[in-house]
Amino acid sequence: MRRPSFLITVLAMRLFGRKRERLEGLDEAQAYARCHGDRDTLVRIVELPPRRKRYGELLASGEQIRRGFEQRLDAREPDEL
Fold first, then answer.
1. 20, 26, 28, 70: which sits with the fewest CB atoms below 10 Å from its CB?
2. Is the CB of residue 39 less than 8 Å from the CB of residue 33?
3. Which residue, among 58, 27, 30, 32, has the nearest Cα to 43 in the 3D structure?
4. What does the pLDDT read at residue 80?
5. Top-confidence range, 22-36, 49-63, 66-80
6. HEC sequence for 25-43
7. Three-class SS of residue 58?
8. Residues 6+ apart with CB under 8 A from 45
9. How many CB atoms are closer than 10 A to CB 81?
10. Measured distance CA(46)–CA(8) in Å, rounded
11. What is the C-alpha to C-alpha distance for residues 25 and 9, in angstroms, rounded to an integer?
12. Residue 47 in 3-state DSSP?
């Protein structure tokens, strides 16, 4: 069971607490202007192509790796053992 002081604190925070205003997202130009002031001619905004997927279908599951290992073991010549 929660203590009454906890409930009073929660109620007080809801009644008297300030509501936070959500800031809107900034684009790159607005963020630069906010941090560094006016932009001179030496600074350019460059649009980069989207990144490619890093791992896509490259990684095999543990089960696929285990099966491949067993196949390689079975394919060995007896004198290699």
1. 20
2. yes
3. 32
4. 62
5. 66-80
6. CCCHHHHHHHHHCCCCCCC
7. coil
8. 28, 29, 32
9. 6
10. 53
11. 33
12. coil
